[in-house]
Amino acid sequence: MSYYRIRQNTDLATDFTPIYQKSWLSGGKLHPWTGPFETVNSPVVINEDESPLVLGSYPLMDAQTSLTVLESAVKAWDSGLGPWPTMSVSARINAVSAFARDMARKKHEITTMLMHEIGKTAADSEKEFDRTIDYISLTVEALKDLDRASSRFSIDQGVFAQVRRAPLGVVLCMGPYNYPLNETFTTLIPALIMGNIVIFKPPKRGVLLHQPLLELFAKHFPAGTVNTVYGDGKEVITPLMKSGSIDVLAFIGSSKVADILKSLHPRPHRLRSVLGLEAKNAGIVMPDAEMASTVSECISGSLSYNGQRCTALKILFVHDSRYEEFKEKYCAGVDALKTGAPWETGVKITPMPDPESALRMKEIIDDALEKGAKIINNQGGNVDGTLVYPTVLTDITPRMRIYREEQFGPIVPILRWSEIREVLDYIVESNYGQQVSIFGSDPEKLGRLIDPLVNQVCRVNINSQCQRGPDSLPFTGRKDSAEGTLSITDALRVFTIRTLVAAKDSHANREILRDIIHDHHSAFVTTDFIF
Hints:
This protein has 531 residues and is an alpha/beta fold. It folds into two domains: 63-276, Aldehyde Dehydrogenase, Chain A, domain 1 (3-Layer(aba) Sandwich); 281-476, 3-Layer(aba) Sandwich (Aldehyde Dehydrogenase, Chain A, domain 2). It contains 16 helices and 27 strands. Strand 13, helix 8 and strand 14 (272-276) form a beta-alpha-beta unit. Helix 5 (182-193) crosses helix 15. The relative contact order is 0.14.
C-alpha cells in the first residue's frame, strides 16, 4: 500500500529539520553509532514527489550493544548503592525539575517532529507536549506530598519505625506510537524520580522526536541513570529480558507482546510489570440520551487521532428507539470531519503512521463487508494511501473481526439493542475491561447500570467519552487491558516498594537515630520537610 499524497502546495510541510540520529545514550554519554540505520518516512508524499518525505534516521542497534547499555544501567544501580538511588528525594526533585525546564525549550522541534512522524495534528501534538510538561510538574508535587507524609517516625508496641518508599532497580520503559512522548514519560518520569535506573526504547514510530532530549538526560542525571536502545525489539529487547537484570517492565502496547516479554525473564517472580494494554471500550446510548451532546461525545471519543487511542470508544450500542436518529446525526458529523495532512488548519482525520496500519484497517473493513456488514457514511471505506477515511459500519455480527478485535483506527461499528442485558453480556464476555461510556438522563437507570459495570471495567463515564485524564485519577484496566495502576500518585507507588527502618525503643537507639537524622548520615532516614 502507498502513502497519502499531498496534492496542494504548503510551506508548513517542510517546516522542520530532518534528524539523522547517529548516537545512543548510555553511561551518561552520547556514543557514536557506526552500524546500520533505519530511515524514518513521513506518512505522506509531498506534491508530485515519488517518495514519502524523509524525516531522518536512527540507529539499528544489535544485541551486543543492547547488553552494553544494560551493563551501564546495572552499574549505575550498583545493587542500590549508586549515586541516583541513594540521592535524597529533594535532590532528585531538583534534577527532574531542571530537566523539565530545559525540555520546555524544545517544544517547537519536538512537536513539529511529532506531527510529521506519526501524523498527529499540530494542535494535538502541542497538547501532548504541554500535557507531558504538566505531568512532570504534578509528579514533583505528588512526590513532595508523599515524602512529607513519610517524614516522621511511628511508635507502636515499643518499636520506632520510619516507613518510606524505595526504588526497585532497573526499569525498562517502552511507550506506544500513538502517544510516544506522553505515554513514555508517564512511566519514565515516576520511575526515575523515585530513584530507579531507566532504559527506554522509543516505539518504532515516534523515535526521532526524543532525540532533542538525549543531551538533557546526560546533563541533568548521574552517569547511567537514563539510557536508550533503538532497533528491532526482538534484537535489542530479547537479550535485556533474558538477562534477568530488568527489575521492572513498564510497557504500553499489545497484550501479546507483553506476554512474550514477560516470558523471556528467567526470574518471573522478581519482575514487576506495569502494563497498559488493549481495550474495546463501549459506548451505550440509552433511550433518554440527550442526542446532540451524545453524538458529539461519541464522534470525538471514537475518532480523535483517527481512533488510535486505547481509550477510544471502539463499539457503540444504541437503543432501538434512538437507533435511526443516532445513525443519521452521527454519520453527518463524521462526514463533516476535515481530512488531510496533520499541519493543515482544522484537520481532524490524518494519515495513519505507515502503510501497514492502513492496510490492516482495510482488511478489517473488508472482513466485515464480506460477512454482511454495511457502510452507512458517505466517505466510509475509502482509503487513499495511508489516509483511511472514517468508516461507520452497521449489521455487525460476532463473526466479524470488528466485533471483538481492537481496531485502533477510524472504523466505528454501531449495534442496536433492546434489552440492556445484551450489552452487559458483551462487556462481561469481552477480553478487555478498561472503560465504558453511558449516555442517558434517568438517574435510576444509570445508577442500576453503574453497579454491574464497575465490576467489569475500571472507569464508567457518564455522558462523556472514555479518556485517561485528568492524570490525578487512576488509569488502569481489568482482564487483558492493564496490569498495575498509573495516575500521578499511583505511578510513584508502582515503581517503588514500602521499606522501613525500625528499632526497639531504648535510650541508646533514640540517641543513634537522633544523630543519624541531625547529622544527615542517611538519605533514607530523615525528617526533613520538603517545601
